[in-house]
Structure formats: structure tokens, C-alpha cells
Amino acid sequence: MPPLREEEDIRDFPSLGSLESQVIQFFVDGVKVLGLPRSIGEIYGLLFISPDPLSLDDLVEKLGISKGSASQGLRALKTLGAVREIEVEGSRRSYYSASIELKRLVGGFIREQVRPHLESGQSKAGNLLQMAAAEPDPARREFYDARVRQLEYWIGRGRFVLPLLQKVLGQ
Would the pTM count as exceeding 0.85? Predict the structure, then answer.
């Protein structure tokens, strides 16, 4: 049986224990499925398993990533509603903690990633229909038209299901 992931996909985090490293890897695997950068999974994973809020500098040090990557990842995670900023008394730094409410995570992902894709897909499908109608070969035109109409159907179903999903999750 082949390994679940290639060796280069697994990074060492020398300042962290085995449990922390495995939790981080769990979220890295998850964000890869969603097409998001590895650093987003690393940051969220570390914040998720950390009992205390962490600063940007803490993330850079513990994960071995650049300050720019950590800053960009935090910004993306805040936009998704996956992390929140925490005030730490006596400190001027910003600290962060993972949001662990599923409805917030899924809702943020739907709002920021899925819904814009469906909305742009609607206008793209209209353009595709015009292109299909211009196909000179009648058999190909019919085939293209059927496929583009299938895309429109999928987009319509997605636009119908997303609000229901958000409602079920309490968004």
C-alpha cells in the first residue's frame, strides 16, 4: 500500500511536540484539498492546538515561516472567520486564537470562496452558451449546448443549496 503522503509534504517543527506537529499536518492536508496555501493550514493548526493565543512572531518562530507568509495567512484566516484577534493585557502586540465553531468556518469559506465562484460562473455560463450557439457543426453545437446547460444547472443547484447549508449551520 502506498504512503498516504509524500515525504516532502511533511515538514518538521522542531520547537513543537509530536501531537502539535500531527495536528498541524492534519490541517495542512485539509487546506490542500480546498486549494488553499499550506501556510494557512499550518497557522490554523498551530492556533487550534495552542492553549494560549499566539502573536505573529510566535507563529513565525514556531512554524519556521516568513513574517510575510504568516501575516498573509492570518489575514486570510481572519477573512474566513477562522481566527480572531485577542487582546492580551499589558502587551501591545496582536495575539490570535483559532475559532472552532464549525458554522463560522464553513460559513466563512462559503462566503469568501464558494459564493463568488458561483456568481462569476453564472455570467461565464451565459458567455459559453453564446459560444456554443456559434459552433458551425450542428452535432457539436448540440453537445456543447447540453454541457453548458448542465453547468448552469449545477450553478443553480449550488446557489439554492448554499443558503440552506448556511441556515443549517446557524449563519
Answer: no
